[in-house]
Amino acid sequence: MTSPLSVLPAGLLAMLLEPLQQGFLQRALGVGLLVAVVCAVLSCFMTLKGWALMGDAVSHAVLPGVVLAYALGLPFALGAFVFGVGSVGVIGWIRQRSRVKEDTVIGVVFTGFFALGLVLISKLRSGVDLGHILFGNLLGISDGDLLQTALIALAVLSVLLLRRRDLLLFCFDPAHARSIGLPTGRLHYLLLTLLSLTTVAALQTVGIILVVAMLVTPGATAYLLTDRFDRMTLLAVASAVLSVLVGVWLSYWLDASTAGCIVLSQTLLFLLVLLLAPRHGLLARHRQLPLPLDAPPQRS
Amino acid sequence: MASMDVSEPPPTPRIDVRGLTIAYDGIPAVVNVDLQLQAGSICGLVGMNGAGKSTLFKALTGFVAPSRGQLRLDGLPVAEAQRRQLVAYVPQSDQVDWQFPIRVWDVVMMGRYGRMNLLRWPSRHDCQLVRQALERVDLVDLRDRQIGALSGGQRKRAFLARALAQQAGVLLLDEPFTGVDIRTERLIIELLLEQRNQGATVLIATHDLDAIPSFCDRVVLINRTVLAYGETAAVFTQDNLLRTFGAAPTASA
Question: What is the CATH number of the domain that holds A157?
Fold first, then answer.
């Protein structure tokens, strides 16, 4: 039997496949890929809606929720969800009632929530490992967490795929969405809810700090490659999956932080695309650049 | 002065605005606006920037709630009228993200969403109407282009096609002539007349004062409240325009 991989030198093949023989890595890879797919699909909406900062805010704001849930013996998804959506509610409430600009309000609120989480961790002694929440614990994921992550991820993914046309319209033209009677307020909160839930799912993989990368970078990368939304979604998923594969593999051989390697792969992929994308890349743009009309060629 | 028109005992007006006041943070943007528009008419909405045109549109599209007064479309509250697909809105060009990864066809199809099932799978009928709308605005050949790859006039026509595909009785157009070529302007006017003759009610905010007498049956002049409203010939006078703009406007917009 000849597999396509057989053209690779035996040494390289062994190097590629060796990590997969480790049970804990297979599991890590499985969870990582599932989370990557959900985050990638959501990231398309986040980048098009201009919600990157909102993703950052929600991901940080879930910390006190996770700590409290652990302390009370509740599913951590529940705590994270309440605080994720709650933070957005607080942001909206302050924004509507004050002259402070939205990005400032976001900055104030999410750091406040995050700090509350730090204080709770240090006082409650809940057995929560701060390091795991902040930076992920992909290699030490438990069966219970695995199941929870998988359920959340599949639920979010189904809703995103089934309602993608309404969500897309909501991102593109909320005024039209409203004028044909779509519940734009509910779509807004639907997207926020999906964001909070996805953050919870991704928490295990890359941790709170780097979740925002999963929620933004694949969408941004894909956005540079196509002008069609369905293709953008597929490309985002492909880039996220590739990054997880490369990241987990790198972290095995470099013995370096898994979350760090995954996100770094994403970032490098983005930079590569930014430079080389066929139409929207920097090189392509440079070639297309028209001569400025008001600057006639210099004559000696 | 031509103010509210009471000569004809009207059936339920398509657009019925009574005593409408809208305030942002306690500062009124429009005050005590009255406006009744019947089916089968085109009304030009004219005023300076900041005179409250956009606020009125926001109220008619449900984005702001009246602080006082009421607003009905076909006798229904705005939200209900929207659920019944009675209102089509054509936004100003600067309100659209032209980089958005979406094709002309998909933009026009969005006009049909309100009449589709929850998953928004287009039926053959939906596709037919989208195609007809694109044919009407002469964009069929460009249907697979990304929306931002169109020229200014073509972009406007794409959004007009979306409104046509929606088959709404009330058409709201915010500055449709800004940044379009003369050919598109003629096409838009021709289209609006056609829609009016089929019974639509059209409210169009525009700075293009030259064009108004050629297609608007009525004009409403506003500066935070209605200064004058009625048939174009009676309202569109130098005196009234002077009061609206505070100085004689240069006729070419």
Answer: 1.10.3470.10
- Rounded to the nearest angstrom, the gap between the alpha carbon of residue B201 and the centroid of all alpha carbons in its chain is 9
Q: Which two tokens stand for residue B64?
A: 């702001």
Q: Quick one: tokens of B205? A: 């905010």
Q: What is the pLDDT of residues A142-201, one digit of tens each?
A: 888 788 888 999 999 999 999 999 999 999 999 899 999 999 989 998 998 899 889 888
Q: For chain B, which ranges sit under pLDDT 70?
A: 1-10, 247-253
CA dist A287 and A292 (Å) reads: 14
pLDDT tens, A195-248?
A: 988 988 888 778 888 889 999 999 999 999 999 999 999 999 999 999 999 998
A172 in B contact zone (CB under 8 Å): yes
Distance from CA of A34 to the nearest CA of B (A): 24
Within 10 A of A83 (CB to CB), how many other CB atoms are there?
A: 26
Q: How far is B172 from chain A (nearest CA, A)?
A: 10
What are the residue boundaries of the structural domains of chain B, listed by start? 1-86+171-176+202-244, 90-167
Q: Residue A228 falls within a domain, yes or no?
A: no
Would the CB atoms of B110 and A169 count as touching at under 8 Å?
A: yes
How far is it, in rounded angstroms, from Cα B52 to Cα B21? 10
Amino acid B2: pLDDT: 46
Q: What angle do CA B68, B74, B79 make, to 5 degrees?
A: 60
In a domain, A146, yes or no: yes
Structure confidence at residue A156 (pLDDT): 95
Q: How far apart are CA A68 and CA A208, in angstroms?
A: 16
Counted domains in chain A: 1
Residue A49 covered by a domain: yes
- For position A295, what pLDDT does the model report? 44
Alpha-carbon distance B28 to B37, whole Å?
24
Query: In chain A, which residue's Cα lies nearest the Cα of B149?
Result: A227
Q: Is A290 inside any structural domain?
A: no
Fold of B1-86+171-176+202-244: Rossmann fold (3.40.50)
Q: d(Cα A227, Cα A50) in Å, to the nearest integer? A: 17
Q: Name the closest residue on chain A to residue B145, using Cα atoms.
A: A227
Closest residue on chain A to B77 (Cα): A181
Expressed as residue numbers, the domain containing A90 is 31-208
Q: What is the rounded average pLDDT of the residues A125-150?
A: 80
